[in-house]
Amino acid sequence: MTTFLGMPTTAPRGVGNLRGDEPFPAAARKALGNAQLRRNLGHATTTIRAKSGAVIGELPDWQELRTAGSALKADTMARLPELLVQLEEKVTAAGGVVHWAADANEANRIVTELVQATGHDRVIKVKSMATQEIGLNEALEAAGIEPVETDLAELIVQLGHDKPSHILVPAIHRNRAEIREIFLREMPGVDPALTDEPVILAGAARRYLRETFLSTKVAVSGANFAIAETGTLAVLESEGNGRMCLTLPETLITVMGIEKLVPTWQDLEVFLQLLPRASTGERMNPYTSMWTGVTPGDGPQNFHLVLLDNGRSAVLADEVGRQALHCIRCSACLNVCPVYERTGGHAYGSVYPGPIGAVLSPQLTGVEDNASLPYASSLCGACFDACPVKIDIPSILVHLRNEVPHPRAEQAVMASAAYTMDHPKLYAAAQHAAKLSRFSGRRLPPPFNGWTASRDLPEPPPETFRDWWAKR
Amino acid sequence: MSSKDLMLGRIRAALGDTAPPAGIPRDYRGDRVADLDLLVHRLEDYRAVVHRGVPIAETVAALAPAPLVVPPGIDPAWLPDGVKVLPDEGLSADTLAVAGGVLTAATVAVAETGTIVLDGSPDQGRRIISLLPDLHICVVRADQVVASVPEALTRLDPGRPLTWISGPSATSDIELNRVEGVHGPRRLHVILTEALS
């Protein structure tokens, strides 16, 4: 028996960025008051939906690819222990070192000690959701190590002392004029004549980071995919900052959630077609790097892979919710979500915002720590349609709403409603009583006024169906 | 107990008796014939410059990158006279960063996505040499072009360091519009030649 080895455990409190400071409704109310934020988000999400729709439309077999992607992820999850062990064997055989991190604290400690062992005090970073999730930058800074984000959007967030608000484009809440302001204020040596042309802003980031790329000896990355069969890791990116980090330093440390596995080399053919079109709306992203362990004479000669659980095994234990682990972090569900489009990512409190965040964050932390997120949705289903691996986000949301602790008043009301509906005479009497509400206005009294705060109470008909039927 | 045993134990406990799906439905397309015109269109759509059916050395000379970095296994017939050539015998990052350009071969090109893949073979060289110079000239043979991603993977060796390149360096990070020119080469020229006879 293996149960004594420990039951699945949620991500620990006090570390990382999975929990917000306030519930979603309160944070959303503030965000909704920011007209600039709403304009920026509306513009960006409209742009990406059009781009993505156009390139998805080019593929006649998009639905077949989605079906294959979904099945491959289900297969991966069902065989996760053997595939993880296989990945470790292959990476090790190719000259890499594999580390297992049960939670954020352990992963942060492993990475910090690996950097310290190199004797360097600065690392360059490729954009990585896993390291955002565990708060690696904060841990490195506490140990006197400077993490430099090299992705343009992450750089905008870091220089702006801001938080990421989107999985793919963490600075989606900023427009070009705001980015120019941040660069002028925070980027050492920036040209004071900087304009807000995107190509000029990109050029400023190129000049600013060039020397850092050439002189930094340690890099930290995430991974989009890890192939168990071959031990190969893949990072998809656009700017070339990923290539810089994966090629130039002496030491590369990759932090990867255990759900990023793909069983075989051939399986990549599905995900390499799904991810770019669903995420940036490109047929293929400008650069994809793949490496297997260490290549003598080419690239980092020290490679470490950190496999991260941090609550994922707890997600896996939920038969309905586990498909949230199929996510390939494309962010298509954010871009189509009417709630995300209006509130932006910060309101979700977690590094995983939007529909996928609303199902992933509460499961990673345990629902009691993100109890408002399963309600941060209108259940319209657009996310399910957009998901390239067909994660049924609405069903998980409904499932999690049942897991959330409910107030006793609500439990009592629901229990009495259920009892009433179970007893025909009571139910008929209740319907008659409901007619009286025609004279009580369109607002419910406390504690039910939350329901009518943003809705009108429907007007009851003058006659119940039963009364009408009895007269016929 | 090691963290590995702890994690594997937790995952096994979480899975219980979950069975993998009976099979993976692979009803998507594969095994098609490559369309060279499509490759050219896709490359140009992402702001790469394509030269088709032209003499290689003369095309390289017209781009006039100096010095021109080349991997050790480059075909000498591709090198123009009168251009300063820097063969990569362990060139430093600083030298590469100020080079005028780099000339490499390729392993595979994917028509449907406009992608070129380098695998570090002697005529493609270390990953760093096609990264730091601002101009990348890449020679692709017609017989290296495949229709789509599945066909490309069957031709690639996952044991080699692979770089998939689709157009010049770009970003979508400012208002989600694609803007060319960040950290990688800002100019990508592709010379498409006939198949090996």
TrEMBL record, chain A:
Keyword Magnesium assigned: no
InterPro entries the UniProt entry points to: 4Fe4S_Fe-S-bd, 4Fe4S_Fe_S_CS, FTHF_cligase-like_sf, Helical_ferredxn, LUD_dom, LutB/LldF, LutB_C, NagB/RpiA_transferase-like
Region feature (Disordered): 450-472
One of the protein's GO biological processes: lactate metabolic process
Domain 4Fe-4S ferredoxin-type residues, every copy: 324-391
Segments forming domain LUD: 86-294
Lactate utilization protein B C-terminal domain sequence ranges: 402-472
Entry keywords, A to Z: 4Fe-4S, Electron transport, Iron, Iron-sulfur, Metal-binding, Repeat, Transport
UniProt-recorded Gene Ontology molecular function terms: 4 iron, 4 sulfur cluster binding; metal ion binding
Name the UniProt record assigns to this protein: Iron-sulfur cluster-binding protein
Species: Actinoplanes auranticolor
Species lineage: Bacteria, Bacillati, Actinomycetota, Actinomycetes, Micromonosporales
